[in-house]
Amino acid sequence: MKKIRLEKLENLIDALSTLPTVGRKSARRYAFYMLLNDSYCAMKIAHAIEDAVMHVKKCKKCGNLSENEICDICYDESRDIEKLCIVDNVKDIFVLEDNTEYEGRYFVFENLEEETVERLEKMIEEGVCEIIFALTPSLSNDALILFIEDKLKDKGLTFTKIAQGVPTGVNLENVDMLSLSKAINGRVKV
Predict the structure, then answer these.
(1) Domain 69-164+177-184 has CATH 3.40.1360.10
(2) What is the DSSP string of 149-177?
(3) In whole angstroms, how far apart are CA 41 and each of 21, 30, 34, 35?
(4) Confidence (pLDDT) at 190
(5) What are the sequence ranges of the domains in the chain?
(6) What angle do CA 84, 88, 89 make, to 5 degrees?
(7) pLDDT score for 111
(8) pTM metric for this prediction
(9) d(Cα 107, Cα 40) in Å, to the nearest integer?
């Protein structure tokens, strides 16, 4: 008995399964849906991917995503230029922006290359007074915070980091030990 071999379908399934959290079964389901149920949706997705890949790039100042050389946040004169929030990746900017509490600017610190440090120093020269670290808690990020503080210690900056600890609505039994330790050690007076 011969196996059904549709090369273009297999290529689509393979491509979809390379996406994070999409396994082979889900990729096959998506492929069949797009081919059999909604080819217009498939073409719309294909066009949107092509358009985004061609036009979305990193902001030359902060590393955020932008359709221009400079992102909307860096370009926005109403943002608080005295506050600069350092994040691990672009996705963190979108999370913080959805929250709407922070009105400063951002800097994506993806690596320790000299170019990254120079871009950070240029942003600081624009009037930054406070560096806020919004990095995922880890030993490597703690080391990165110390590196940045040491590198910028002569600039007269205030260094802060976002609070860590027990998330709202989570029982203590479900909190990992590192978060619980940080919550206990970073407790505040009520």
Answers:
(1) yes
(2) HHHTGGG--EEEE---SPPTT--GGGS-H
(3) 21, 11, 7, 9
(4) 60
(5) 17-55, 69-164+177-184
(6) 100
(7) 85
(8) 0.81
(9) 38
